[in-house]
């Protein structure tokens, strides 16, 4: 279906200036619409740890004309090594750089979140109105418009409101029914990550270490001066779930208590945690809801269908979702309910596949409680990596983690 002849430009409000929000804004302005992005953070939130692009996410960036730019700022991470308590590597999986098949444990397109946010901002800032330091506190809607009430006390009317405000989305909270089931689907893992100074022992290969008690540590170094540290813990307790809402000092104490005897470089990593300016702690969850829209309000990215870090497709799903949502709005500018319904119908198979790839039972195997389980993982992994089985499987794969779902073509809906 082509763009409706003579349709007026829509006035769209996007709540959230991260990856999904900016990607959505990019495609909407090229469909001829007027877009305002509001972001609670006082400046562009160009921070965060390392992310990757895979499958359809790579294609989505390519359609934006930004793939060469992303290539130029990729993190140098040629592979993933597995280490023991002394730091000795007992197996390594290299990235698939053949241009064929799928990605391995590390993608050919590893990039820092902040760098991708800056790339997207550079592509949108001249055409989109950005307002920082302001969020949407509430809204009302009727069949023709949405009235948004902002955190600075002002209000404004728009044709559409899009929640791109992440896993903890306020917009999602307000469009779901009061008796709707919780949108959060825990996978059993808690995670924290932070930056520390890089030292001479840190090379570009990512390192992963298993410790007894369902604990995992990962180290990756993204530039000459900084190293990223990730702690992951398999624990089902009220304390673990609640700690992520506590003050940062309490969060750090929780991770110190859980990991102080884990071995390898734990003491170095914990010392750096207490000094770092960048620290984030979270329960690993997926966001699953029965709907991504209500009336003239819709969700995109993690706000609607967070896949969790263990899907490996969170960033790609945000880019793909933004592309499909904008494409359907551009196709149906005079019929927003139809646009949102087609957005859901088109994207749902992709989201189902991405989220379905996260199997808690399989993940549990990667977090053994005892030394026997760790030794079994090492033995199996050592054989597989010696034979290069992960690299061969990726190179000859017919599809990446997003499955065989094809990115739709919306080029006929673009005006600019």
Structure description:
- Helix 1 (19-29) packs parallel to helix 4 (113-124) and helix 1 (19-29) runs parallel beside helix 10 (314-331).
- Helices cover 34% and strands 25% of the residues.
- It is an alpha/beta fold and 416 residues long.
- A seven-stranded mixed β-sheet has the order 5-4-13-14-15-12-16, sandwiched between helices.
- It is built from 14 helices and 18 strands.
- Mean pLDDT is 94; it is low at 1-6.
- Strand 17 (293-294) and strand 18 (297-299) form a beta hairpin.
- Pfam families: FAD_binding_3.
- This is 2-polyprenyl-6-methoxyphenol hydroxylase-like FAD-dependent oxidoreductase.
- Residues 11-326 form the FAD-binding domain.
The number of distinct β-strands equals 18
Low-pLDDT stretches are 1-6
Q: What is the spatial order of strands in the main beta sheet? A: 5-4-13-14-15-12-16
* N-C termini distance: 18 Å
Mean pLDDT: 94
Which structural class is indicated by helix and strand composition?
alpha/beta
- Tell me the overall shape: globular
> Nearest-angstrom radius of gyration?
22 Å
DSSP strand content? 15-25%
Helix content: 25-40%
Distinct helical segment count:
14
Biggest sheet overview: 7 strands, mixed
């Amino acid at each position: 279906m082509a763009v409706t002849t003579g349709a007026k430009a829509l006035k769209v409000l996007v709540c959230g200036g991260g990856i999904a929000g900016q990607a959505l804004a990019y495609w909407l302005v090229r469909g001829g619409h007027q877009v305002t992005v509001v972001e609670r953070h006082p400046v562009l939130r160009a921070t965060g740890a390392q992310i990757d692009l895979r499958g359809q996410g790579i294609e989505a960036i390519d359609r934006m004309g930004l793939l060469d730019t992303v290539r130029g700022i990729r993190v140098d991470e040629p592979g993933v090594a597995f280490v023991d308590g002394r730091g000795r590597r007992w197996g390594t999986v290299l990235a698939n750089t053949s241009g064929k098949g799928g990605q391995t444990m590390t993608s050919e397109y590893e990039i820092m979140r902040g760098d991708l946010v800056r790339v997207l901002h550079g592509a949108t800032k001249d055409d989109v109105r950005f307002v920082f330091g302001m969020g949407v506190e509430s809204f009302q809607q009727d069949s023709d418009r949405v009235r948004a009430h902002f955190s600075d006390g002002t209000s404004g009317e728009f044709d559409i409101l899009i929640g791109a405000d992440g896993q903890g989305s306020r917009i999602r909270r307000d469009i779901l029914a009061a008796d709707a089931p919780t949108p959060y689907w825990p996978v059993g893992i808690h995670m924290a990550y932070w930056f520390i100074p890089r030292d001479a022992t840190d090379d570009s290969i990512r390192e992963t270490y298993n410790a007894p008690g369902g604990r995992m540590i990962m180290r990756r170094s993204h530039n000459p001066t900084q190293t990223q540290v990730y702690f992951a813990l398999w624990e089902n307790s009220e304390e673990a779930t609640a700690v992520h809402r506590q003050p940062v000092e309490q969060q750090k104490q929780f991770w110190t208590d859980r990991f102080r005897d884990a071995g390898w470089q734990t003491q170095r990593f914990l010392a750096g945690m207490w000094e770092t300016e960048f620290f984030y702690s979270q329960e690993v969850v997926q966001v699953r809801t029965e709907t991504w829209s209500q009336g003239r309000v819709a969700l995109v990215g993690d706000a609607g269908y967070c896949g969790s870090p263990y899907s490996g497709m969170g960033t790609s799903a945000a880019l793909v979702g933004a592309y499909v949502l904008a494409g359907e709005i551009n196709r149906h500018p005079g019929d927003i309910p139809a646009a949102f319904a087609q957005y859901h119908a088109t994207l749902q198979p992709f989201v189902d596949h991405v989220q379905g790839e996260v199997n808690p039972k399989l993940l549990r195997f990667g977090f053994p409680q005892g030394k026997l389980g760790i030794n079994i993982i090492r033995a199996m992994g050592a054989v597989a990596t010696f034979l290069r089985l992960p690299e061969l499987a990726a190179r000859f794969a017919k599809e990446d983690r997003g499955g065989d779902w094809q990115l739709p073509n919306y080029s006929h809906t673009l005006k600019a």
